[in-house]
Amino acid sequence: MTLVSKDISNAIEILQRDQLVAIPTETVYGLAGNIFSETAIKRIFEMKKRPMFNPLIVHVASLEQLNEIVSHVPEKAKLLAEAFWPGPLTLILPKQNHIPNLVTAGKDTVGVRVPRHPIALELLKQLNFPLAAPSANPFGNISPTSSKHVKNYFEGVLEMVLEGGECKSGIESTIVGFENEEPVVYRLGSTSLEDIESIVGKVSIQNKKETAPNAPGMLSRHYAPETHTFLVDDAADFIKQYPEKKIGILSFDIEVIAPQIVEQKILSLKGDLEEATSQLYAALHELDSLELDMIVAQRFPDYGLGKSINDRLQRATKRK
Ligand code: TXA
Ligand code: MG
């Protein structure tokens, strides 16, 4: 049985034994283990069936702890950390020697972030080691935004889920690396591009490499439901070709009406992108559980968090 509980001391005890605990963060639940425990880190890769070339994000309690993890902090990295931590931003920086290669998949850089969820922060403060935590889903699947999603994936094989309610931001952190001291976005996420650019000016985006990507989470098929998923500009028009299919619709703020629609998820009736982002994965999890013939998502506005949502939906359309 996988224990679901709010008991931080219980989580600490399990983590100190080199075992794993799924932890709530403001973005998605993470599958967490002690970065210095080979047993724990190997178990993370094994449990997620994650390829060993895909590095893990290190979670720390405060900006000050960055100095124990990385060997150099570019000026713009410092500005971003000051602006967004605790929060959904991961910085990729050169690692110190004592950070295990297993965590960074052999890279000489490490991804670091300070999460904003109060329970995650409290846990990290009480531990005397940082936590490596990828999203708590099998490789390629939709990330979990509730303890229930985690339990569905790992019931019985995972010791504990630390209960922290539904994740507020709802999609993964934005990942920023540095090339010649200049920021490069490797993964769009819960911190919008506009917010990042308001701190450091124009940044480049490099998130579409198909092979050996900078952030391997950018492999094109990722975050995907089992149900065949489409991303289209006009859902009402698109589904006219499929009068006989059982269809689930995912949209920002409009309702689509047609007899073949079995279920419809409108992510924010009032047209609020933050609200929509927080609901995205829960809606995909639910649509995916209904044995539909297809999920049809209508493209979101292409600015702010809408860009990040479109990125995830685009990846969700890729077949295995
Ligand atoms: O919001 C999040 O970031 C969540 C929560 C749990 O913190 N974590 C998460 O982890 O999404 P994961 O493992 O599912 O995605 C981490 C991404 C991967 O695409 C990985 O390739 C990239 O971060 N990454 C980690 N370390 C890296 C490094 N040193 N260089 C380049 N990419 C890195
Ligand atoms: Mg992931």
Structural notes for this entry:
With 320 residues, the protein is an alpha/beta fold. The protein is built from ten helices and 15 strands. Helix 7 (193-200) links the parallel strand 10 and strand 11. Helices cover 28% and strands 20% of the residues. Helix 1 packs across helix 5 (118-126). It folds into two domains: 3-72 and 84-167, DHBP synthase, CATH 3.90.870; 229-316, Threonylcarbamoyl-AMP synthase, C-terminal domain (Rossmann fold, 3-Layer(aba) Sandwich). It has helices at residues 8-16, 38-48, 75-84, 101-104, 118-126, 147-154, 193-200, 235-238, 273-288, 305-316, and strands at 3-5, 21-23, 30-34, 57-59, 89-94, 109-113, 131-132, 160-162, 174-179, 182-187, 204-205, 229-232, 247-251, 261-266, 294-298. The site of threonylcarbamoyladenylate has 29 residues, from strand 5, strand 6 and strand 10.
